[in-house]
């Protein structure tokens, strides 16, 4: 009697494992719809949507030691922020690390001026100013700022009222 109960439980558990394995094999097999399927499953179970994010190396966007966007930097920035313009979430701009200022700016002033330049491009790209937040300078987890400036743009989804 005890042996029969154990085998029924083991058989049900094996069926569950095989169903889960089959589900994940199907998700892995169809890479094109994988992200949509996973987000749909997460939404069904009440998962919070991950924020959209872009990280751009400031040295590739700006003239050396300046807060002036290069033409290729402007194009790269506009391409990176295009998805942010269509939604209604809050867009936060943050600087991580510092580049060395060479001419008019010291490192802190350069980082802040570059954040302002990025904010102006975002407004020109169609993101309303009331959706923008400039968070300022950030450090890494170890408390040290890297020797290279990165511009992080994060969108938080609009809160449902």
Q: Summed up, what is this model?
A:
The protein has about 160 residues and is α+β, with helices and mostly antiparallel strands. The chain has helices at about 1-30, 30-45, 60, 70-85, 105-125; strands at about 50-55, 90-95, 130-140, 150-155.
Description:
By secondary structure, the protein is an alpha+beta fold. The chain has two domains: 2-44; 52-156, 2-Layer Sandwich (60s Ribosomal Protein L30, Chain: A), CATH 3.30.1330.60. The protein contains five helices and four strands, in the order ααβααβαββ. It has helices at 2-29, 31-44, 58-61, 71-86, 107-124; strands at residues 52-57, 90-96, 132-138, 150-156. A four-stranded mixed sheet has the order 1-4-2-3. The radius of gyration is 24 Å and the shape is elongated. The N and C termini lie far apart (57 Å).
- Run of helices and strands: HHEHHEHEE
* Contiguous runs where pLDDT drops below 50 for at least 5 residues: none
Helix content: 40-55%
How many separate structural domains?
A: 2
Q: How confident overall, as mean pLDDT?
A: 78
How is the biggest beta sheet arranged? 4 strands, mixed
Task: Tell me the fraction of residues in β-strands, as a range.
Answer: 15-25%
Number of strands: 4
Total helical elements: 5
Give the overall shape, derived from the CA principal axes.
elongated
CATH class of the largest domain: Alpha Beta
CATH architecture of the largest domain: 2-Layer Sandwich
CATH homologous superfamily (4th level) name of the largest domain: OmpA-like domain
Strand order of the largest sheet: 1-4-2-3
């Amino acid at each position: 009697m005890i042996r029969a109960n154990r085998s029924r439980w083991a058989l049900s558990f094996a069926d569950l494992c095989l169903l889960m394995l089959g589900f994940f094999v199907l998700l892995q097999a169809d890479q094109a719809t994988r992200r949509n399927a996973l987000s749909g499953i997460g939404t069904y179970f009440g998962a919070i949507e991950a924020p959209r994010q872009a990280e751009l190396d400031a040295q590739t966007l700006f003239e050396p030691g300046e807060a002036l966007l290069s033409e290729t930097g402007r194009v790269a920035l506009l391409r990176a922020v295009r998805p942010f313009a269509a939604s209604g979430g809050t867009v936060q701009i943050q600087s991580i690390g510092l580049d060395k200022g060479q001419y008019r700016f010291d490192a802190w002033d350069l980082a802040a001026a570059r954040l302002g330049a990025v904010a102006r491009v975002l407004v020109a790209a169609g993101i309303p100013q009331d959706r923008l937040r400039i968070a300022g300078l950030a450090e890494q987890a170890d408390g040290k700022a890297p020797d290279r400036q990165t511009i992080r743009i994060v969108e938080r989804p609009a809160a449902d009222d």
